[in-house]
Specification:
This protein has about 900 residues and is an alpha+beta fold. It folds into four domains: about 180 residues, no CATH class; about 450 residues, no CATH class; about 100 residues, no CATH class; about 55 residues. The strands form eight sheets. A four-stranded antiparallel beta sheet has the order 4-5-3-8. It is a multi-pass membrane protein.
Length: about 900
């Protein structure tokens, strides 16, 4: 039987057994209502759809569904069921849900949903001079502003005539309707009241135990064509046409339409992503200029000329870089890495590091202003308090058996005892530390790989220290080969560990039983970010701040945890080029793989899932079946999008001093990312349940923390990873008087060690030494500032070492103070809320109070007039939603 709920909440049964319905009737059903977002009567809109199939455990699930749907009917929802014989696979039932006006009005009052009560009368002065320049980037006005601008107030069912209600069927937009229905579905029980088990309620639990297979609101049309129903706005089609196609990459985003269709939470994400991409343009331009400067000053690189020359670099014999398997080598074998390092290690690096410290402050401050404007325009100014007080998670309500009085609402509500909360938090913290330790262990394993493989590469290349690739062109040294392979392996480990972290983070967050959805997302955000931070950045931190810093010197080398693996050294070109290599591989690999995965996997799954429907005419493919075959946009779908962008933000801020082109790569990726995210959301996923969010949540605090940390990391990269400070100290303090050049710097930066003093266990095997090495060579050089053999303080640090160290520390202090002072000054100068938005918020609050006051006064006058049989003196201005005739009728 096809079960439905008619008007007035009465249950109707259309009794006809499967198989007995005639072909004509079935054809009429298919063509009459299949590709529609309305019930069979063509009047009641489908606000939500549930699907299920019969299986072996059918009786228990059938009982749950029967009780659950009956309880939905009790709260006023109207249901209509599509039999499985009407579905393409012949086994799926679809329960269509409609929320009538009484239900919508009741829960809009409960949720304090803001609705319009007066047209905005503040003139819009946002027109900019020379606005015609932005014409190619604009979208049509009806797409950018799908609704007029109103003053709004929280809906009050008892004062419905106070609001601008022209048509009750369209007063609440579909996104608000599906949000209200989902709120009801999440709190409706699926067992009889006499059972007394309070834990058995909510659509989420029914989906988890297989009672229902899916629950989703409907898209309003196909994405490639408008709906044939004149009552549908076809907003999905407009979003695809003007937003989701890649060739719209240079166009502005229709944020108001996104918000109207998907809700504020998704709208605020795309607003942030678009603003971040716009700000990246400035960083990319400056970073590219700094890179071009390094390229133009290529020929002025005196130290690279000395390394590459046969007279200097070709005559300097360097000490072995590992024990036994590494032989002596000449300095000029690092010629190419030295030239490449200059592209990123030059004077412009210091300027760019300071610029990015200021840029990130401007980005965050301007975003606060943009966010404040959106909060007002999207009626989110007072949303946080509502979120905290009213919308408890169903899981929290069911798992917390204790009750206490809420001092704000003066109602009894569930709560988690402090002892249980502490125990759960301690277990959660211990789990987080355990998994972070696992990440660090993996990084140590990669470091051990680097040490072991370097010896192997050095042994392979002992006869020809450089191997030329005919296709690529540049020379490959053991250092470069080790760095590239280790970075690739590290990237693979990162991708594997990510799959495990997601499940662990969700599990421990569920275990903590957060009170609200906002608290749940914030807790999950912190845990996932800690995992990802250590996972993605630990290898970069190692190369930037640890590699080559604790090596020792020939005869007294430092070893990794007492093993036979000697700590890595930086080659004479410095560790900066290795940090650049690590950054490029991990950052670029993550972005490319992420975009391929986001676009390709949903498309392939949908293509496979809808294979049966492709053999039928489109007119027989119902709207609910089309959406059922799409991928579900999970509760954490948006969370992973934020996480991906925040990790990218870390790459372009924490280590940008080593790679000025990082913002350019991020800009290119984000231009693609906006369209990939919009395309998959519009075409490959079911319509998400609309949700409110007044900001980007915990991500904002994380971005602020990373902005502060980036100043410190870039200062340390310039000071300790780059060779900028040693060169400046040499130029200004150790050059002959009057000469301001870098001649002799390489010879000055290398110390001398007596080969005869190298212990036997550290000396290279005879077969490992190159053919040019002979007994006449008595000393080798290494990268450090130490006294030579025979000096009274032999092999201890020279005074130049301490001068350089003092200069590095002074540079860090000066750079940090300058950047932080500028950051705080800029943050102080730029108010978080624009003045016009502040004025609009005050005016709206004033109007709400004034109109409500007048409304109550007129109500009182009407009552007194009725009591005294006096003539009514109502004015239409007091009832903005009523006509003059309706006002007079109300008075009478």
């Amino acid at each position: 039987a096809i079960k439905g709920v008619g008007h007035g909440g009465k249950v109707l049964f259309l009794s006809s057994r499967p198989g007995q319905r005639g072909a004509d009737e079935r054809g009429n059903l298919r063509t009459g209502h299949k590709d529609s977002v309305f019930f069979r009567d063509g009047l009641r809109r489908i606000d939500f759809v549930l699907s299920y199939v019969d299986d072996k455990d059918g009786e228990r699930k059938q009982e749950r569904r029967k009780v659950y749907e009956a309880n939905l009917v009790k709260v006023g929802l109207e249901l209509e069921t599509e039999d499985k014989i009407e579905s393409e696979d012949g086994k799926t039932y679809f329960v269509k849900i409609h929320a009538p006006w009484e239900v919508l009005a009741t829960y809009a009052d409960v949720l304090k949903i803001k609705v319009p009560f007066k047209v905005n009368d503040i003139p819009d002065n946002s027109e900019m001079p020379m606005n015609w320049l932005s014409t190619p980037f604009r979208l049509p006005e009806h797409i950018m502003q799908p609704e007029p601008d109103y003053f709004t107030a929280p809906f009050d069912k008892s004062k419905a005539d106070f609001f601008l209600i022209d048509n009750k069927d369209t007063f609440f937009p579909p996104s608000t309707r599906n949000r209200i229905v989902f709120y009801i579905l999440s709190r409706c029980s699926y067992i009889r009241e006499d059972c007394g088990d309070r834990d058995k309620k909510g659509i989420k639990r029914l989906l988890n135990n297989g009672t229902y297979t899916a629950a989703f609101p409907l898209h309003d049309s196909r994405y490639w064509t408008r709906s044939r129903d004149v009552n549908c706005d076809s907003e999905r089609y407009n979003l695809y046409k003007h937003w989701a196609r890649f060739f719209c990459f240079f166009k502005e985003q229709p944020l108001n339409l996104i918000r109207k269709y998907y809700g504020e939470k998704i709208g605020i994400y795309f607003a942030w992503l678009g603003f971040y991409t716009e700000m990246l343009l400035f960083a990319a331009v400056v970073g590219t200029i700094c890179f071009v400067y390094g390229f133009l000053t290529y020929d002025d690189n005196q130290w690279s000329k000395e390394i590459c020359s046969e007279e200097i670099g070709g005559s300097i014999v360097m000490c072995p870089l590992c024990d036994k398997k590494c032989g002596y080598w000449k300095l000029n074998t690092t010629c190419n890495s030295s030239w490449q390092s200059h592209l990123f290690d030059n004077v412009a690096t210091v300027f760019f590091a300071i610029f990015m410290g200021i840029w990130v402050t401007l980005f965050l401050e301007f975003w606060k202003r943009r966010q404040a404007r959106l909060e007002y325009e999207w009626d989110l100014v007072d949303f946080e308090e509502e979120q905290q007080q009213l919308q408890l998670r169903p899981e929290y309500e069911t798992k917390c058996t204790n009750r206490k009085l809420n001092r704000i609402t003066q109602e009894m509500e569930p709560y988690l005892p402090i002892t249980s909360k502490c125990a759960r938090s301690c277990l959660s913290g211990a789990t987080v530390l355990l998994w972070i330790s696992l990440i660090i262990a993996c990084i140590i394993g990669v470091i051990a790989y680097r040490l072991a493989v370097y010896a192997a590469f050095a042994s392979i290349m002992k006869d020809n220290p450089t191997t030329q690739l005919e296709v690529v062109g540049p020379y490959i040294t053991p250092q470069l080969a080790t760095s590239v392979t280790a970075s690739c392996i590290n990237f693979i480990i990162i991708m594997i560990l990510n799959l495990m972290y997601e499940r662990v983070a969700v599990w421990i967050t569920d275990m903590e039983i957060p009170k609200t959805h906002l608290e749940y997302e914030n807790k999950l955000t912190v845990k996932m970010f800690l995992f990802q931070f250590v996972n993605y950045y630990s290898s970069c931190f190692y190369v930037a701040f640890f590699k080559g810093k604790f090596v020792g010197y020939p005869g007294n080398y430092a070893y990794m945890f007492g093993s036979k693996l000697r700590n890595e050294e930086c080659d004479p070109g410095g560790c900066l080029i290795e940090l650049t290599t690590q950054l490029v591989i991990v950052m670029t690999g993550k972005q490319v793989w992420g975009n391929i995965q986001e676009a390709l996997l949903p498309w392939m799954r949908n293509w496979w899932g809808s294979r049966r429907a492709r053999s039928h005419p489109e007119s027989l493919y119902s709207r609910w079946e089309q959406d059922h075959d799409l991928q579900a946009f999970g509760q954490l779908g948006l969370f992973y999008e934020y996480l991906e962008m925040v990790i990218q933000f870390g790459f372009i801020t924490l280590f940008v001093a080593s790679f000025p082109l990082a913002p350019l790569l991020a800009l290119i990726n984000n231009i693609i990312e906006v369209r990939v995210d919009s395309w998959k959301l519009t075409t490959q996923f079911r319509r998400p349940v609309a949700a409110k969010a007044h900001s980007i949540g915990a991500w904002e605090e994380i971005l602020n923390g990373m902005a502060v940390l980036s100043v410190v990391t870039n200062a340390f990269i310039v000071a300790f990873t780059s060779d900028m400070i040693p060169r400046l100290v040499y130029m200004y303090a150790y050059q002959p008087q009057g000469e301001m050049n870098m001649e002799g710097y390489i010879n000055n930066s290398l110390s001398v060690f007596n080969i005869s003093e190298i212990p036997a266990e550290n000396r290279p095997d005879d077969e490992e030494n190159p053919s040019w090495f002979n007994s006449s060579i008595t000393s080798c050089r290494y990268r450090d500032y130490r006294y030579p053999s025979g000096h009274e303080r032999q092999y201890s640090h020279t005074m130049q070492f301490w001068h350089i160290l003092a200069a590095k520390l002074a540079f860090i202090i000066i750079m940090e103070h300058v950047v932080f002072l500028v950051k705080f000054f800029v943050a102080w100068m730029i108010p978080d809320v624009p003045s016009d938005v502040r004025a609009r918020v005050k005016r709206e609050r004033y109007l709400v109070q004034e109109y409500l006051h007048n409304y109550e006064v007129e109500k009182l006058k009407i009552q007194l007039s009725k009591q005294n049989n006096e003539e009514c003196t109502c004015t239409p201005m007091i009832y903005p939603s009523l006509s003059k005739h309706e006002v007079l009728s109300e008075c009478l």
